[in-house]
Amino acid sequence: MKVKTYNTCSLHEGLEDIKRDLGSEALILSTRSVSVRPRFSLFKKPAWEITAALEEKVEPKPEPSLGAKRQLRISSSTSAAVATARARTARDSRMEELIAEISDLKKSLRSLTKAIPGKSDFGDGMFAELVSQGIDHDIADHLIATASRGNPAPSEQRSFVRRLLADQLNIAAPVELYAKTPVVSAFVGPTGVGKTTTIAKIAGHAAIRMKKKVALISTDTARIGGHEQLARLGGLLGIPTYTCADVSTLKDLVAGLDDCDLILIDTSGSSPSDLSRLSRLEPVTAAADGKVHLVISATTRSDDITKIVSRFQRFSPASVIFTKIDETDSKGALTGDLLRNELPVSYLTNGQRVPEDLVIPATDELAGFVVPLETIII
Q: Closest Cα partner for 297 from 334, 267, 250, 268?
């Protein structure tokens, strides 16, 4: 018996590989959901490990000639010994157990086939809906296959897909608002994503609602009027703002604000393609010696988000903040980007008001962007 194990992103892909390698007569010995860590990724992704087997057929031996038959009679004692050995193997209890296992696995294969997306109206419709909302094919496969186990009703399957999707999302705690100890946070990201306004929103919530002592620091000396914008917002909120043009003094400035509960540091926006500028930004976040948040606009294309995440990974961001979610109708793509890039999300912003338009996301809310509750038709 030929046995082989496959590691694939989806059940459908795995079964296609098995069919191609071993043929349609192959038996599925085991399947299990696993997590793998792709190369250069900090987080794991869902995958499948499938073990399959193929019974190798024994070719019939040709009928021996008359001379060969005489030779066979001459060596009858040897043949008898071989036959006895074969009979002993045939009666081996382990072989009987294997046959019983194969029978059970055939039943499992039939059940597994029913769970593969595309084999039912629910699978087809749900798969298309997930993909159209920005969910990768392999993740959609995994969600539908898991939700289809036991053949629940379509409405239950839909709710289950939403719960499974929510379970895969990661919310980073908004420590700037709720931490009991002093927090220093720096914010990085491309130009024009609303980084400075987002900092002011977080500062406003922390100072006004949580009664924290907050300080703002601008290191954005590359953009004309960059530090003036933060200073103006800080003035409206009654929060002191400092400008630090010299990175070498940033560490001393942060240390001098040791009586503050929260220090938020604005940085220059950087194109993910400008590697030299990103390199110059690294000493800033190192001197701040705090948490780093990556700020991305929700209107950014998925391919560009993947590039941004890859290029800004050098700063080891603790979370991502998506801004401008009110400016896109494709909120499902936002959830897909979080899953695809395995990003923990801490805040969303949905408007220009400071500090009102700041949202602490919930996993069910993010899953609802992709799988909304069904409309009740009266």
A: 334
On the 0-12 / 13-18 / 19+ scale of CB atoms within 10 A, 108 is: middle
One-letter amino acid of 16: E
Rounded to whole angstroms, the Cα distance separating 44 from 37 reads: 4
Residue whose token pair is 């296959």: 145
Same domain, 211 and 353: yes
Considering the domain architecture, whether residues 255 and 276 belong to the same structural domain is answered as: yes
φ, ψ (nearest 5 deg) of residue 10: -145, 160
Check whether residue 143 and residue 244 sit in a common domain. no
List pLDDT tens digits, range 179-217.
Answer: 999 999 999 999 999 999 999 999 999 999 999 999 999
Q: Is the entire prediction scored with pTM above 0.70?
A: no
Total number of residues shown for the chain = 378
- Starting at the earlier edge strand, list the strands of the sheet with 2-8: 2-8, 45-54, 27-36
Q: Are residues 181 and 161 in the same domain?
A: no
Neighbouring-strand partners of residue 262: 183, 214
Question: Residue 267's domain spans which residues?
Answer: 172-370
Please list, residue by residue across 274-304, b when 16 or more beta carbons sit within 10 angstroms of its beta carbon and e when fewer do: eeeebeebeebbebbebbbbbbbbbbbebee
Q: How are beta strands 45-54 and 27-36 bridged, if at all?
A: antiparallel
